[in-house]
Amino acid sequence: MLARLIAGWRRSLLWTALLGLVLALLATLVWLAGRYEVSQVQERLERDAAGATSDVRAALTRNVQSLQALQTLQGAEGSTATWVLQADALLRNQREWLRLEWRSAALLPLAHTDSPYRPPAFARLGRSNAQAEVALACANARRISGPAYSASYFLPQNDGMGLEAMELCLPKIEAGQTLGYVVATYSLADLLAERVGRHLARNHEVSFTEPDGTRLALHGTARRASRVFTAQQLLDLPGNTLVLRLDSWRAAPDLFPNVLTALVTAMSMALIAVLVLLAKDARRRLRAERDLADALAFRKAMEDSLVTGLRARDLQGRITYVNPAFCDMVGFAPHELQGQANPAPYWPPELTDEYQKRQAVRLAGQHVPPREGFESVFMRKDGSRFPVLIIEAPLINAQGLQTGWMSAFVDISEQRRVQEMQRASQERLQATARLATVGEMASLLSHELNQPLAAIASYASGSLNLMADQPKQLGSDHHYFEMLHTALQRIAEQAQRAGKVIQSVHDMVRRREQRREAVAPQTLFDAVMPLIELQARKLQVQVQLAVDRPLPRVLCDRSMVEQVLLNLARNGMQAMDAPPDLPRVLTLHARPVDHTHREAGPPRWLAFEVADTGPGISQDVAQQLYTPFFTTKAEGMGLGLSLCRTVIEQHGGILGFELRQPRGTIFTFTLPVVPDDR
Ligand code: ADP
Prior knowledge:
- The chain is built from 15 helices and 22 strands.
- By secondary structure, the chain is α+β, with helices and mostly antiparallel strands.
- It is rod-shaped, with a radius of gyration of 72 Å.
- The chain starts with a helix and ends in a 6-residue tail after the last strand.
- Adenosine-5'-diphosphate (ADP) binds at residues 567, 571-572, 575, 612, 614, 617, 621, 625, 630-633, 636-641, 665.
């Protein structure tokens, strides 16, 4: 948890740092681009200023040369007119000059001429006003024996305006003697207008200033804007130093000063957008990763907690995955199993061939393994064998292609052991139950055999009595033989019955499949009626037999069912024994069982009823009725009803009783109808 928190913190810190760095980089880039552009503009301006300065300087030098040419005319007497003519010609070419003068060595004006392009410049104040500047320039010129300039000065004009002028003095020196001077008066504004390129004047303000920044002359008009760029160049003239200044305005501050900056900005924005998208993508990935990790952890926990072994194989039969349960099952470590092909280490050597064939069939995809799995035998690392249940399913990847087989294994040795134990205990239980029944049967046997034996005894004593009378009646009475014959027949029947009773007990003990046969209900009654009637006569009971016709046959073990009928009849008759004055009627009845509302067609079951007019069965007795050895009779065994129920239930039927109105009890049991008779 903590580690995840720290990792999350670190990740967000890294992202913040990255974002910060990118923003800083972009800001720097934009700033640098802007600065680069400013420096470009400044540089161009500097270049222009330098160019303009050198243009002006070249023009000044050319002018000095023209003046030197003019100077050659000076000196000779009468040359004044020629000089003026020449000077006029010069003035027409050079608009920056206001006036040209020829002065003597003592600086006295000898000749002069004014620029034809404007009214005489000194008309208002007079030339003497500028005498100091001329004197200074000429003194300088004399000293350096070359052209020298004066400081500029303001020259008011008649039109109320004024102009900044500057004197150039060029001495004529021959053999160390100063013979005279040519003085040219420059108009600084015109100098700029004439000698600075026109293209510059269109976009810039060109001006001469003093070194301290005082503006002297101005030329050109530039569109004023918020940001001014300035370049200055020194124009160092002998005697005067001027500063040529170029001013240029730009609309600044501009967010996108030019295409470069705009491009950089656009790219920066694109970069930020990409960064944002990347961050979103990373977050999505992170979430997916976390979900995946959770799912993986969940799956791992599930696999580890499984008691079912899991194994995956690729299409070549190599093991690609085993879970811990599988390793525990076979006793091999995962690395001993993974990558293993045939034969697998857990295959018992004696079964390898069979398993190999099975695997070949599986890998060929010809046979789909049964969904409920199949059983096999594996070998542990220690060599012991154990049975497993294998459930196999094809391994399908995300593209829907089969990449192998996934198998689940359940170790069924424990299950087998439990099954075996259950079977053994079941057998033991059954044997015990049979033994218990044997005890019951043995007791019953003595009970049951009493009847036929008593009957045999009574028939036998009857026969003996008849035979004792024989000398008197023999030969004369046909009836006598008939009675004897019947008695002997009955003895034979009862002896047979006793034999059958013993046989059925024997069968029960041996648990042989009971012999079921199809018997008509009437036949069953016929078999037991003589015995019932024998007892009925003794107990003065009236027996009624009612068999509905036609009735289908029932499927039963005949002698056992006869035994049940006998038992129930005997119980009924014994119950009626107590009060001598009440009617004693035993009713035997066979009928089809009523259909339930769902069934239709012929009956499936027959019901046999044995009804008496006895006292009925009290609650207390009813509770223990079927308990072995429960009896209310002095000589009773208490086994009859429990045995009857066992017999009927073995036939699939039920035995029950209900009270009869106004007196008595009705015992009912059911038996299945023979399918063919339905
Ligand atoms: P036994 O006849 O040897 O006593 P049974 O298991 O046949 O053993 O009967 C158990 C008891 O159920 C009898 O002792 C008797 O009290 C009672 N009983 C059985 N049948 C009837 C009947 N028809 N009427 C009243 N009581 C009965």
